[in-house]
Amino acid sequence: MGASFESSESIAPGKRVLALSGGVGGAKLALGLSRLLTPRQLTIACNTGDDFEHLGLRICPDLDTVMYTLAGRNNTELGWGLAGESWRVLDSLGQLGGDTWFRLGDMDIATHLARSEWLRRGESLSAVTRRLCAALGVAHPLLPMSDDAVGTVVHSDQGALSFQHYFVREQCRPAVRGFEFQGIETARPQSELMALLGGDELAAVVICPSNPFVSVDPILKVPGVRAALRATRAPVIAVSPIVGGIAIKGPTAKMMAELDMPSSAAAVAEHYGDLLDGFVIDETDAEQAEAIARSGVAVRIAQTVMKTLDDRIMLAAETLRFAAAI
Amino acid sequence: MGASFESSESIAPGKRVLALSGGVGGAKLALGLSRLLTPRQLTIACNTGDDFEHLGLRICPDLDTVMYTLAGRNNTELGWGLAGESWRVLDSLGQLGGDTWFRLGDMDIATHLARSEWLRRGESLSAVTRRLCAALGVAHPLLPMSDDAVGTVVHSDQGALSFQHYFVREQCRPAVRGFEFQGIETARPQSELMALLGGDELAAVVICPSNPFVSVDPILKVPGVRAALRATRAPVIAVSPIVGGIAIKGPTAKMMAELDMPSSAAAVAEHYGDLLDGFVIDETDAEQAEAIARSGVAVRIAQTVMKTLDDRIMLAAETLRFAAAI
């Protein structure tokens, strides 16, 4: 670690931080937070609306991205999957005429085989995630938003598409009309997540710079989560995934345009609405600070584009200081 | 091909041969037959009692061994699986704490992923096997004995073990007491197999030198198969899997001893009983010919140990000549 922050700088003793994360963008900030906070101090709850069954494998893209990132095993060249990955299975599968549109590396397949097997044996997704994290050396608690299956459906100009069909197979080309989270009404929020939200150790909730519609909203829509976020005395801080009108990663800006929203940090803040106590925007978007502040949300201007590990740690530290100041 | 046999030597025009096969030993003779007979002339029906679900994958060891062997893709060093195989998935799975007792190579996993997916979509095992064979360039029809699942259970001094647990995990160490083929009573024989057995094109049935108890018996016990074999006018010829009192491959001799049978070619002939019109034994066992012949079964003495491709082709040719002479 090159940065010189100490966890004691930003969080009071005995206090804990909850990060809500989707995939890549969220994982970057989660990694930064994990370098400042101990496993006792930081819990990460992750979107599972992207999860799907493919080739009989239960695949949890966001959980895996965060897990691989925290393990230092993420593939930075591809931006997804594992470093040093190989493609022996998928190459052979293609030769046999099988589906290869979802790129599964050999080591990644091992993760999905293990997860699927343990789930079939009756273990919860939480328990399976704990086992995988332990094997990969991830010490910070990583929680699925729910142990119940939720399936994000993208309603588009090409009809209803399951999320991975929209995201990977169609490469986000269809124009988005809206989203549906199948199973969300009956999904129970993960118990440790709710205990943390309802307890008095919570110092801050950090909504990572993930896609508001398909990464963060599913977490917020699990019954009980939004109410618990409203009820907690801890500040709820979001970091904008939109910088200078574009998304650092993924289709957030494109979705906003298709949903007739301005592609701006301010529009993201408005989307989260009264859930937020604070909002971190990039220096590029400083001129939006006043408008956001008028809605009663504290604003912190920071360098939010995370290119290096130091960027991740500095943004995490800035976010924690902001939370402490609210 | 080094040998100089012509298919016209051994089989009349318009006639067809059916081979019944288990895994490795059977696949060797099936390969020899495939070099002498055209895809129109040779059909191979394969044991599926060894099939099992593992890590959510439907694995058909005997079908795959025959398929990989006919494709020239079998791993001759290991004696199973694919040549040039790699172990990336299984290595990672082991690091994650998953089950690795059943050695699945990366390319082999692709076969199982494709098969499992196509079966889940409602295709029959026959149709799936056709697709896999087509992709691998296997032109000879390869049929599962049934499209219905049959599960071989080995009753042993360590209790009831599913076949692969006995065979791979326990490495055949438990002493065998008997066998059970779960689902066999309601399994329907594969339709092309029955059409061939019931038709007038059949020139010979060759029971390959596979384990009589766990490779051939499951095929014979699929309802209707044994009766059809008795009813056909074509000669039914078995090639002994026992040579000089030992099995060339696998636990046949050990099983015979544990079942209080002599480990001899003659005992295999007796096991098949009145199903046989002819029995091919090795030169080593020539002294058993008379005893076998006394039971009314024609005997051919041949070089049955198949070390090279030429050995396979020569034994296949000898078996076809024997059938033609009966």
Outline the structure in words.
The structure is a homodimer of 326-residue chains. The first copy, chain A, has helices at residues 7-10, 24-36, 61-70, 88-95, 106-120, 125-136, 163-169, 191-198, 212-221, 225-231, 252-258, 265-272, 289-294, 309-325, and strands at 16-21, 42-46, 52-54, 57-59, 142-144, 151-156, 159-162, 176-182, 202-207, 236-239, 242-243, 246-247, 278-282, 298-302. With 326 residues, chain A is of the alpha/beta class. Chain A has one domain (7-52, 62-73, 139-325): CofD-like domains (Rossmann fold, 3-Layer(aba) Sandwich). In chain A, the strands form 4 sheets. In chain A, strands 5-2-1-9-10-13-14 form a 7-stranded parallel sheet, with helices on both faces. A 3-stranded antiparallel sheet of chain A has the order 7-6-8. A two-stranded antiparallel ribbon of chain A has the order 3-4. In chain A, strand 3 (52-54) and strand 4 (57-59) form a beta hairpin. In chain A, helix 2 packs parallel to helix 3 (61-70) and helix 5 runs antiparallel to helix 6.
Nutshell version of this structure?
Two copies of one chain form a homodimer. Helix content of chain A is 40%, strand content 19%. Chain A has helices at residues 7-10, 24-36, 61-70, 88-95, 106-120, 125-136, 163-169, 191-198, 212-221, 225-231, 252-258, 265-272, 289-294, 309-325, and strands at 16-21, 42-46, 52-54, 57-59, 142-144, 151-156, 159-162, 176-182, 202-207, 236-239, 242-243, 246-247, 278-282, 298-302.
- Run of helices and strands of chain A: HEHEEEHHHHEEEHEHEHHEEEHHEHEH
Largest sheet of chain A: 7 strands, parallel
CATH uppermost class of chain A = Alpha Beta
Question: In total, how many domains does the architecture of chain A comprise?
Answer: 1
CATH architecture term of chain A: 3-Layer(aba) Sandwich
Q: How many beta strands in the DSSP annotation of chain A? A: 14
Largest interface, chains and sizes: A-B, 29 and 29 residues
Q: For the largest beta sheet of chain A, what order do the strands appear in spatially?
A: 5-2-1-9-10-13-14
**Overall spatial form of chain A:** globular
Give the helix level of chain A as a range of percent: 40-55%
Alpha carbon gyration radius of chain A:
19 Å
Mean pLDDT of chain A: 95
**CATH fold node name of chain A:** Rossmann fold
User: What structural class should be given to the helix and strand makeup of chain A?
Assistant: alpha/beta
Strand content of chain A: 15-25%
Number of helices of chain A: 14
Q: State the end-to-end CA separation of chain A.
A: 28 Å
The unreliable regions of chain A are: 1-5
